[in-house]
Amino acid sequence: MALNDSKWTWRTVSLISIVTTIILIVGLVYAVRDIIYPVGEASGTNLPQQTAAPVTETVKKLKVVALGDSLAKGTGDNTGEGFVKRTVSGLSAKGVEVDLLGNMGINGLTTAGLQSKLDEDGIDYALHMANVILLSIGGNDLFKDSNILQNSGALQSESTIDQELTPESLLAALPEAVERLGKILEKITEINPNAQIYYMGLYNPFGDIPDLLVPGNQAVAKWNNAAMDIINKHSNMTLVPTFDLFNKHLDKYLSTDHFHPNGDGYQRIGERFIQAIH
Questions:
Q1: What angle do CA 26, 27, 29 make, to 5 degrees?
Q2: pLDDT at 52
Q3: Helix, strand, or coil here: 275?
Q4: Among 26, 79, 111, 271, which lies 20 to 30 A Cα-Cα from 263?
Q5: 0.70 exceeded by the pTM?
Q6: SS3 assignment, position 169
């Protein structure tokens, strides 16, 4: 009886060993097969029936502050909107949530004047609150300080201009004015490093007067190129060009003072700012 029990015990152990061995062999075969023929992700021809919807980035509200000279103020526009309000309205029409916090444009302001203004508490506060800053400055440095315009802003007689205007007289103010522009842009960035700055490039308002065409274009081109050299070094700055808008279209886009844009001119500038911002 004991002998029979011993035989069954050994048979059971042997059977278990054989089953275990078979399981191990089967497992090994599957493991080797998985290594040699791995099951990868679905190929491009077997696309999933439904993909996750893309996450829509929340567009933050634009808080706009305008700064600079009479162009920022909107002088010459009978509606009083200028390019600043037209830019804000155009962005809003495109569905962008935008607020105009303030327009601090001042008639006749030069780069030197704006440098001083940036130290004022009110302007400092407004710039801190903004995330979009529209800037227009430099036209008075080139043209008004070159005595092309009278104090009233009206164009002088062509005979007086012939006597006073040379390329040298226009370009004389350029180096120091450009240096101040660089400091202005750096100061604004220092006040608010998170804001995007959109600087309006200059146009030649006297391109339809033969004696002013070449020197005016030379001065404006050098100014815009110098401004671009500064702006290209900063990711938070953009130059918004306007020269091509007014070139050969001054009769359509200038106001009666022959210096500031009219409503249509400001509309074209506003469209450029909208393209740059949105």
A1: 65
A2: 38
A3: helix
A4: 111
A5: yes
A6: helix
263: which 2 tokens?
Answer: 């409503």
Q: Which residue has the tokens 């162009």?
A: 71
CA atoms within 13 A on the CB side of 25: 6
Strand, helix or coil for residue 112: helix
Contact 25, 19 (CB under 8 A): no
HSE-CB of 134 using CA atoms within 13 angstroms:
33
Range list of H helices, the chain: 2-36, 70-73, 82-93, 111-117, 121-129, 139, 158-164, 167-171, 174-191, 210-231, 243-246, 250-253, 263-277
Give the pair of three-digit tokens for residue 110.
């030069």
Half-sphere exposure of 243 (CA within 13 A, CB side): 16
Q: Is residue 142 a contact partner of residue 111, using CB atoms and an 8 Å limit?
A: no
Per-residue pLDDT band at 6 (split at 50, 70, 90)? low
Residue bearing tokens 């012939």: 162
pLDDT band at 212 (very low <50, low <70, confident <90, very high): confident
Sign of the C-alpha dihedral, residues 146, 226, 133, 256?
A: positive
Helices of type H across 37-118: 70-73, 82-93, 111-117
